[in-house]
Specification:
Distance between the termini of chain B: 42 Å
Oligomer: heterodimer
Structural class of chain A: mainly alpha
Helix content of chain A: 55-70%
Helix content of chain B: 55-70%
CATH architecture of the largest domain in chain B: Orthogonal Bundle
CATH class of the domain at 10-236 and 253-292 in chain A: Mainly Alpha
Order of helices and strands of chain B: HHHHHHHHEEHHH
CATH class of the largest domain in chain B: Mainly Alpha
Number of helices of chain B: 11
CATH topology of the largest domain in chain B: Cytochrome Bc1 Complex, Chain D, domain 2
Number of strands of chain B: 2
Number of strands of chain A: 8
Strand order of the largest sheet of chain B: 1-2
CATH topology of the domain at 10-236 and 253-292 in chain A: Cytochrome Bc1 Complex, Chain C
Number of domains of chain B: 3
Number of helices of chain A: 21
Order of helices and strands of chain A: HHEHEEHHHHHHEHHHEEHHHHEEHHHHH
CATH superfamily of the domain at 10-236 and 253-292 in chain A: Cytochrome Bc1 Complex, Chain C
Radius of gyration of chain A: 29 Å
Largest interface: A-B, 73 and 60 residues
Distance between the termini of chain A: 55 Å
Shape of chain B: globular
Strand content of chain B: under 5%
Radius of gyration of chain B: 26 Å
Strand content of chain A: 5-15%
Largest sheet of chain B: 2 strands, antiparallel
Chain lengths: ~550, ~300
């Protein structure tokens, strides 16, 4: 029966050759058999990786012809409409890529679409990690690396958008300079330093080019490598299910199964990106025309990932602008341009540590949380999405106003209120939904699922027959970690009337109150035995009442 | 029916019903809602053309009393509903009436462009009456090509073809006559784009107003708008921007609009980054995530 599964001779030869020199056989065997859990949401990060590879490849292609120079020339080239127009060499070389380089237009569009998809896949990947609690110990460092990648990706996109020196490029750089100038004391120095003088000067594009093609991609590459090495070392989290535990991963081995899946997925990502680039026009720089400092146009936005900053700049009022000893502090730019994004990203970076501090959870977590089982975290995530999303949409307020014929003023006021009220509503609604789902989980665990079959009992009573859920469902439902409700009473004294030592410090008191808030509504699964409910076993009434109040009986 | 019966308890059935109902209401409303402005405009036009015998002056007077005087007053001095038009000039009248903005159905709202209520001959008659009785102001820039001739205004195909060819020739000649692309671009991007946007797509203004899109506007209408400053728009008279510069500017925006979309068949209405981001998420990322779901679902359980 058992046939020896020896590799073909040629492969063996090559393998032995390598093994003789690097002793890779053992490492290779271990790593090629490494198991990856299967779930579609575990592939979101891969989208980012593949888009990044597409960006690197197309970016190299573009650098072959792009001239990062602000030297003024008179255009004389294939794009006849702009013949005779004075423009920078950067813009002219972009036109050259579009109209004279074979395939150049397509590659530029692939580069741009891949950038949009890269950042959006970072966002959905990050949301998946957040809502499943995959950032918890031991993965906090990888979360921080992720936040850094996200921040750098936004900057990278902004700088890349600024390179062709077309009309929106220049406007984007102008806003960037405006935000810099709003920095108290150092603002003008920072701006003069970056631009090498007054705006726009002749240095900004070569400098942004260096940052865009060398500095940030280099850092990104290093961070991505670190991200993967840590992931490899710590192993991927997995969703609860039969046979899975904190100590045991169930999934597909790296080779051949996962490698084939991941490799195939690369081509899907590439196909969608190229398909979009072939059919949907993006950032038509040749139509915009070159940037001059006097030019300005309505109806232009930054790329989507800067949209929330655009929105916060558009919404924030100038009521708090102040003058100190004749020096203006333009809070109307400073707060929305730097403080609000700083708070959003700072909050993201700090959250794993904040949650660990609140819950005093020092355990290792290799199982992903189901979002409903951490209602406060899920609610906070929804609130964050709401703030971000509203700011993002507000960045397009003029387009929305024009497209749907809504007054711009009305829209701005709506967003100003919504961005403050919205997160609270989102938090409450999400938390309630989570708690409702928890209750239903307990119900399903206890009673099985509704079969739709109605039965009449000898007594004349009608009941719906519940059937036992599959073992896998039971495993998933039972995965809910017992969260003790941390109760804080009014004075923080225990049964013996002794004040808890933690309560005495200010931060300790805050922590215990937060912990109470974090856990107080959790539905307890304690003492719930699978399928012990009365609909399955038509027993006496005593069992029925016991089943209905499982927490109370234990 | 069996197909529906089997699926009516599907978790998504409720959403499907709601979406269908909304679509039905939406389409039904769009179909049944009266096109009041168009209907009235058509009757006015019909009445006006019926009277071939009248002189320009008499025809113009009839149009003025029927369609203008109720708001602008018999002497054109205006009322609380409408401004004084005694110094508006022929250019303003030609602009407002030929773009369909006047006669207006609602004096409180900004009027969108719509099919004009009167033919060019009737507008000319109206202007004859206006110049004789009401007032004067900037004249129509006759040398700038106006609206293309319409088939309905001609007896036979041949006459229409000839008139159309003549119009096309004058249109091309006007755009080609623009000397300086760069001047046109700079003038447009400095003076026009911050309301009408770089592509002439239009844009939102403060206080519920908007800057209209410029795609359908003829060169003459663009010129007239500049010299008369309709609505929120400032006046750019021939001293501020000379007729040659106006020609450069108009040629720039019209050439830009005629430009094909080199980047792909979907131009997203040249709205720009908002539309691109929307497509990037709803088409790009969604398709990729759908692929991820698909290949994970199709994977064999243990390999």
């Amino acid at each position: 029966m058992s046939r020896s599964t020896q590799a073909p001779k040629a492969l063996r030869g090559a393998g032995n050759w390598i093994d003789d020199r690097f002793h890779l056989a053992k490492t290779g065997e271990k790593n090629l058999r490494k198991v990856f859990p299967n779930h579609w949401s575990f592939m979101l990060g891969e989208i980012a990786l593949y888009s990044f590879i597409i960006l690197l490849l197309t970016g190299v292609f573009l650098t072959l012809w792009f001239k990062p120079s602000m030297a003024e020339i008179v255009y004389d080239g294939s794009y006849e409409r702009l013949n005779g127009v004075t423009m920078s060499e950067a813009y002219a070389s972009t036109l050259y890529i579009d109209f004279d380089v074979r395939g150049g237009f397509l590659v530029r569009q692939i580069h741009h679409w891949a950038a949009l998809i890269f950042v959006s896949s970072l966002v959905v990947h990050m949301l998946r990690v957040f809502f499943t609690g995959a950032f918890r110990k031991p993965r906090e460092i990888n979360w921080l690396i992720g936040v850094a990648i996200f921040t750098l990706a936004m900057l990278e996109g902004l700088f890349g958008y600024s390179l062709p020196d077309d009309l929106p490029s220049g406007m984007g750089v102008r806003i960037l300079q405006g935000v810099m100038l709003s920095l108290p004391v150092i603002g003008t120095y920072v701006s003069m330093f970056l631009f090498g003088g007054e705006f726009p000067g002749h240095d900004i594009i070569p400098r942004l080019y260096m940052i865009h093609i060398l500095l940030i991609p280099g850092i990104l590459l290093a961070l991505i490598a670190a991200h993967f090495m840590i992931l490899w070392h710590q192993k991927h989290t997995q969703y609860p299910g039969t046979g899975r535990s904190n100590k045991k991963v169930v999934g597909t081995p790296m080779f051949p199964g996962f490698a084939v899946k991941a490799g195939g997925f690369f081509f899907f990502v590439f196909a969608v990106t190229v398909g979009l680039s072939a059919f949907v026009q993006i950032n038509p720089v040749h139509l915009f025309g070159p940037f001059t400092p006097t030019s300005i146009t309505s109806g232009l936005q930054p790329d989507w990932y800067m949209g929330f900053m655009e929105g916060s700049l558009r919404l924030f009022p100038n009521w708090f602008d102040i003058n100190i000893a004749g020096y203006a502090i333009p809070t109307g730019v400073l707060v929305p341009g730097l403080v609000i994004p700083g708070l959003l990203f700072g909050g993201l970076a700090a959250w794993p540590f904040l949650e660990a501090w609140i819950t005093k959870d020092k355990r290792h977590h290799n199982m992903a949380d189901r979002p409903r089982n951490a209602p406060v975290r899920t609610g906070l995530g929804a609130a964050g999405i709401t703030i971000y999303g509203l700011l993002w949409v507000a960045g397009a307020n003029d387009i929305i106003s024009e497209t749907f014929s809504i007054s711009l003023y009305a829209l701005s006021w709506f967003f100003r209120f919504a961005v403050i009220i919205g997160p609270f509503i989102a938090f409450m609604v999400t938390k309630r939904i989570c708690l409702g789902l928890q209750r239903r989980d307990r119900e399903t665990l206890e009673h099985g699922y509704e079969s739709g079959t109605i039965q009449q009992l000898p007594s004349g009573e009608f009941i719906e027959v519940h059937k036992e859920s599959s073992t896998d469902t039971v495993h998933v439902l039972q995965s809910k970690e017992p969260v003790e409700r941390i109760v804080v009473d009014a004075d923080g004294v225990d049964d013996n009337g002794v004040e808890s030592p933690e309560k005495r410090s200010l931060s300790g008191g805050l922590r215990s109150r937060l912990a109470h808030w974090f856990t107080k509504d959790n539905i307890s699964f304690e003492g719930v035995r699978p399928h012990s409910g009365h609909h399955l076993h038509h027993g006496g009434h005593s069992e029925e009442t016991a089943a209905e109040q499982p927490a109370a009986t234990h | 029916m069996k197909w529906i019966t089997a699926r009516r308890r599907h978790p998504l059935a409720g959403y499907v019903v709601v979406i269908l109902a909304l679509t039905l209401f939406g389409v039904g409303y769009a179909y049944l809602a009266p096109g009041a402005d168009r209907a009235e405009a058509q009757t006015l036009a019909a009445e006006a053309t019926a009277d071939d015998e009248q002189t320009d002056y008499a025809l113009g007077r009839d149009i003025f009393t029927q369609s203008c005087a109720s708001c602008h007053g018999d002497a054109g001095t205006g009322s609380q509903n409408a401004p004084d038009i005694t110094d508006a000039g022929a250019a303003a009248i030609d602009f407002q009436v030929s773009t369909g903005r006047m006669p207006s159905m609602n004096p409180d709202a900004q009027m969108p462009r719509k099919p004009p209520a009167f033919t060019q001959d009737e507008i000319d008659a109206l202007i004859t009456y206006y110049e004789a009785e009401i007032g004067s102001g900037p004249a129509i820039p006759e040398e700038v090509p106006g609206t293309a001739p319409e088939r309905a205004d001609f007896e036979d195909e041949e006459a229409y073809e000839a008139a159309h060819a003549e119009y096309e020739a004058s249109y091309e000649a006007y755009l080609d006559g623009a000397e300086d692309v760069e001047a046109g671009m700079k003038l447009y991007l400095t003076n026009c784009a911050h309301c009408h946007s770089w592509s002439g797509e239009g844009g939102a203004l403060t206080d519920g107003k908007w800057a209209p899109e410029l795609h359908e506007a003829s060169p003459r209408q663009l010129y007239e708008a500049m010299v008369t400053g309709p609505g929120q728009m400032p006046v750019f008279n021939d001293m501020t921007i000379t007729p040659e510069e106006k020609q450069d500017l108009i040629a720039y925006v019209k050439d830009l609009q005629a430009e094909p979309n080199a980047g792909g068949i979907f131009d997203l209405n040249r709205i720009g980054q908002v539309a691109e981001g929307f497509i990037g998420w709803t088409v790009g990322l969604s398709l990729i995530v759908a692929c991820a779901i698909w290949i994970t679902a199709k994977q064999r359980a243990h390999d």
